[in-house]
Amino acid sequence: MDHFSYIGGQLHCEATPMSAIADSVGTPCYVYSRATILHHYDRLADAFSSLNPLICYSIKSCSNLAIIKLLKDRGAGMDLVSGGELFRAMQAGVDPANCVYAGVGKTDVEIRQSLQAGVGWFNVESEAEFENIAEIARELNIPCKVALRINPDVDPKTHRYTTTGKKESKFGVDIDRARAFFRTYGHDDLCKLTGIHLHLGSPIYTAEPYVSAITKVLGLIDQLAADAANPVTIDMLDLGGGFGADYETDQSPAASDYAGEIVPLLKARVEQGLQIVIEPGRSIMANAGVLLVRVLYMKTSGDKTFAICDGGMNTLIRPCHYDAFHFIWPTKVESAHIPPSRAKQMDLEGLIPMDVVGPICETGDFFGIDRPLPPLQRGDLLTVFSAGAYGMVMASRYNSMPLPAEVLIDDQTVHVIRRRETYDDLVAHERHGVGTPAEVEHAHGVNT
Ligand code: LLP
User: Fold this and answer.
1) pLDDT digits (tens, 9 = 90+) for 125-143
2) Which residue ranges form the domains of the chain, and what is each CATH number?
3) CA-closest candidate to residue 352, choices 404, 403, 429, 300
């Protein structure tokens, strides 16, 4: 469910017409609905309420400070994967104790910053990383809590680029090696290794992979507790993210469908003191945001029709990187062309198949191929739906295109939460000649 709907043939975000946003902020522009974000957060919180989980919003999915702050104010902690995300969380006023920090390549600087900030849990991905965190913790004499990211070898049946819980992935430690890991590191005085972290992939369109991973991990938790020589009590289980979003209408299970299968596995454990964490990103943000672009030119080539837009793979890379489907439709349509759903095939009269492409000098620069769309002309606005997650955060300045603006809509109010970049922004970090020694040092991160 989201708050993007056609009223009188005009697409609105909440009570604001998309055309008004384009008029005031320009295009390309990411548009987020405040009410949808909160609704998506609340439905997860409700669905999993009997586990009383810490919901750590996955900042990587959409990292604008205003979004982080909105979710923090609703009660969320944060899932971090870099010092930059920690910085964002702290800028937004998040308590670091409510953050979990994952990532296969944490640098010493990032580890130090996280220890000093008091991050809630380090989700550790290898033996070498544990040893490094332990050494830095000793050097600073700061205690921390650690969860081992386990690779349960479960197939989440999603794109191979976003599959993380299979044996051959770079993430986590194989479940067969986990007992040895706990035996070696499970009794460190400063780095308390009492948590387990999972993240299977993204998006995951059924509850089944969670069920099989959790079942395996509960077995491990029991084995660890029963280890006569070295018993370890696991007090935190982080299930990761991955809950789906509707790129096509009703593509994903409801939060309550996932929870319906997961909660019964964990309820008794929670009653015995196990803390549950979940790390949703996409399920909160994807359908809460759209990308608004303008058609610059219509063009035919051979049998093909192209709608050439002012944003492309530079603003939203998902279609060309993952072959992802995003529903695309004009923001203003005749009543006969109001889309009945967001489906790949549209059974409406008078549609024309066309490729919706961007301005970038690559053939792979497209939002959609052979999409049946109402007739378009130069100047029309198009909405690329379900773009709130992994949209703006993966945008680039390729072809020296400044990054787009982001707005957060609250009913009739348009909050510009990131201004459109300028050409000055494009070159702000560059120098014509070689920098001064101080600048060179800074560029090498000596002062960061
Ligand atoms: N936790 C960890 C450790 C993760 O790596 C991720 C996502 C999440 C949580 C959040 O997953 P979500 O709830 O958003 O599915 N760029 C790709 C998605 C990459 C996901 C990376 N990790 C895309 O556009 O589909």
Assistant:
1) 999 999 999 999 999 999 9
2) 4-31+286-427 (2.40.37.10), 34-282 (3.20.20.10)
3) 300
